Amino acid sequence: xxxxxxxxxxxxxxxxTATANAASExxxxxxxxxxxxxxxxxxxSFVCINNPEIKLDISRINDDYCDCPDGxxxxxxxxxxxxxxxxxxxxxxxxxxKINESQALPGFYCKNKGHIASYVPFTNVNDGxxxxxxxxxxxxxxxxxxxxxxxDRCAKIGKEWKKQDEARQKSLSNANxxxxxxxxxxxxxxxxxxxxxxxxxxxxxAQEVKVEAxxxxxxxxxxxxxxxxxxxxxxxxxxxxxxxxxxxxxKELTESLRTVKEQRDASKSRIGELEAIxxxxxxxxxxxxxxxxxxxxxxxxxxxxASRPAxxxxxARDRDVEDLLNLDSESAIKWDEFEADEESDVELLYKFEEYxxxxxxxxxxxxxxxxxxxxxxxxxxxxxxxxGPESKAVTDARDQLSSAQRELDNDRSELIKHQDDxxxxxxxxxxxxxxxxxxxxxxxGEYTYEHCFLDKTTQKSxxxxxxxxxxxxxxxxxxxxxxxxxxxxxxxxxxxxxxxxYENGQHCWNGPNRSTMVVLACAEKDExxxxxxxxxxxxxxxxxTPAVCGVKEGQQTVPPTHNEL
Length: 565
Ligand code: MAN
Known about the structure:
Blueprint: H1 3-12, H2 15-22, E1 45-47, E2 55-57, E3 108-110, E4 118-120, H3 154-227, H4 237-284, H5 292-307, H6 315-325, H7 335-340, H8 345-349, H9 358-377, H10 392-423, H11 432-435, E5 439-444, E6 447-452, E7 456-461, E8 467-481, E9 495-503, E10 515-522, E11 527-535, E12 538-545
Parallel strand pairs: 10-12
Antiparallel strand pairs: 1-2, 3-4, 5-6, 6-7, 7-8, 8-9, 9-10, 11-12
Helix pairs in contact: 3-9, 3-10
The protein binds alpha-D-mannopyranose.
């Protein structure tokens, strides 16, 4: 089917309904369609349709001489074919008489019995060519110029057309079904976003309250921590250092004491042994042997034994020493307690509250803290916390606040994202919401092209290599096109179309960033029909999709016309 034929379908279509009435009406002059019959009712005279001031005798109709400036006196000949034809877009002459320099009639009317009635351009009347596509009954060649005979092919053509039309109707109904599904899916997705927005708004309110409370808590903890007297830097402060030194020293002394005690015990036992030997020696020596050396030794032993101090009872002292050496004993110093105690040195030294009854102690403690805070806040006492590390209580409070704040920030940015999404243009019935991210691809020339709805377009060389970005989704546009041809060669006519614009793709060497205009037309399923590179790195894709079936400018859903599919 050629381009001309395609555009002529528009002329043919309005007549679908008219044909039924045609038969019942009175005979009209040759070439007059039923819509214009009323102008030709008078059997005596004729008034030019757009020029009522010109009245002609009835014999002047179809006399092969052009009398009316609008050609209305020659509906069945080519005599007025030099007058500009009636554009399908212009209002009918009989509806508006403002434009009178063009034809009043849309063309020569072919009844096409058995098929669909149609208008043929006046230039085609009696031109010696059978215009079967528009005039299947051959009535446009009624004069038989040069022996031209156009048989009536309407039965055959009509049958074929009916078959095709049935297939088209089936396809159309599938497309409509699919479109409905897409609309439902788009609504579901939109609802999902709206629900999420509601959840987030509630969540944010609660989170704001939480953050506020945690901010207060942090301030209170910081304030209360200020009230605590702080140790100087390093674990344990001065007393801590002293404690540590003392611990080491005590350990050292304990070890020495243990060694000395062991040595003493060993010496004591040896002295005992020696004294026993000498005692035995004194008892057992024979004084009758006049051995001067032995006598001197016995005398010395006797002197030693006489001057030896009486044996003291050291049991208690030894027990004390044993106790000192036993680290697990009751009296041993519990160094761990000193080291683990987080209270400040001063508090440790001056915990006089400890001497007070519980209720009074708490009261005194609070008063002291409050006093300390007041002194710090009035600059009388230095805030010892400023240099030192933060206390665990403050860190914990700060961590809790940061994590709540983080959650709040995340929820807020997610909310903004969804709110933006809701005001974004997703086309008629928000239908592209349902198609967003779904992709179709098609081989063309040396590339495979891909179109991902509302996302991007790419090309990939069949020889290998990566994808080249041909643009990222920018916006939905409405453009006027001459024709959009699907791959199967069936025309979709011209007119206003939805188009998806993709911009800022990969930069083109010596050219712009790649961009693609995806022109959409109604089809049963999503498919790329045609890809052209209109200028260097400026691409155009013609894509079929059920999403635009029956959608006309300024409207949401309307039933699809025969122009598409
Ligand atoms: C690649 C493809 C072509 C494009 C040239 C420009 O080969 O993207 O479509 O025309 O680069 O250099």
